[in-house]
Amino acid sequence: MKKNYDLIIIGAGAAGLMSALNAYLRGLDILILEKNERIGQKILITGKGRCNITTANTDTHEFIKKFGDNGRFLYSALSQFSIQDTIDFFNNYLNIETKIERGNRIFPVSNSAREITETFSKVLQDVPIKFNTTVLEINKNNILTNNGRFYANNFLLATGGKSYPSTGSTGDGYFLLKKIGHTIIKPTAALTPFVCQENFIKELKGLSLRNVNISAGKISLFGEALFTENGLSGPIILDLSSRIKLPSKISIDFKPALDHHKLDKRVLRDFHQAGTKIFKNSLDNLLPKKLIPVIIKLSKIDQTKPCNLITKKERLNLINLLKNFEVTATSVVGFHKSIVTKGGVSLKEVEPKTMCSKIQNNLYLAGEVLNLDGPTGGYNLQIAWSTGYVAGLNIKNE
Q1: Eight-state DSSP code of residue 193
Q2: At what angle do helices 14-25 and 113-123 cross, to 10 degrees?
Q3: Contact 83, 54 (CB under 8 A)
Q4: pLDDT on residue 2
Q5: Fewest beta carbons less than 10 Å away: which of 58, 303, 311, 388?
């Protein structure tokens, strides 16, 4: 005799796990289907394996602004499960102690994303999970998978987007939802590194920049960045990647705390103290070692020139270079390095108070499969927790 569940959840990521826990606590008979061999594959790699759970910016209105026009969809979800509710949930229910780091990012004190997946495993130990199971079709009262057909009164789809496909996020959910009539806003890679065209980029590979200002057009961001083998990455670069069109000139201000005049006075003082020391040996206190050869080359100042012979024009060119170091971003790296997917299921087809599909009334949607994407810093995981919570809370229990 076929088993008929109250709810089948497709995807055991952040949104799916939160939905499962909430539905389980309501007494629903649940089955989780997961295409990987374990739960929370993407959770395990977030925050470089430490999992940036959420943000400490608990003001709902400010949070929603980070998502642009689509952010308004989140008012109901965040009123039911806010950022502070999330922090309290991890601290008090899951007993995972958290801490606030630079940029208002919240991490587990253990610095281990695995603590989160293991804790969810424990609290959901009575909920059956079928691993290595890929859903092929969603129907009104059943779903077809590579491991057979399963029956339920309700279904919740939390398959993620297309970012980091190695974790299982390969866009399956978009295909399934399009098949039953949902509109899919074209998925593109978001929060992803840039590829830059300048040849000197490879010389700077691995150079980490702290407290720099990076701008492109009218957008200016302050924080951390990183040179990669063929471009730029790091928190402010990832945020910038979702906000500008390419190709684009990107300007790095290595000394944002000093305006041109103050930086000029600083360099003039350094050169005065250096005296007859040659130019290439005078920049150690001003710049990271890896950056010095590139700056010398671009400044066009003879590296063997004594500092006391450097002209005012040469010095001012150097100042401009330090305040406006330009690179050209030609493309983004793509889904395999993007933190989140831009695009997804049209929010017009989802009920914001319940996360129920307006196309199929026993189907619920949560997490990255929705057309919502925010900046780095825990914003996107918060969406998974909140929409997952709301979906699990509102599943019909008849």
Answers
A1: P
A2: 30
A3: yes
A4: 81
A5: 311
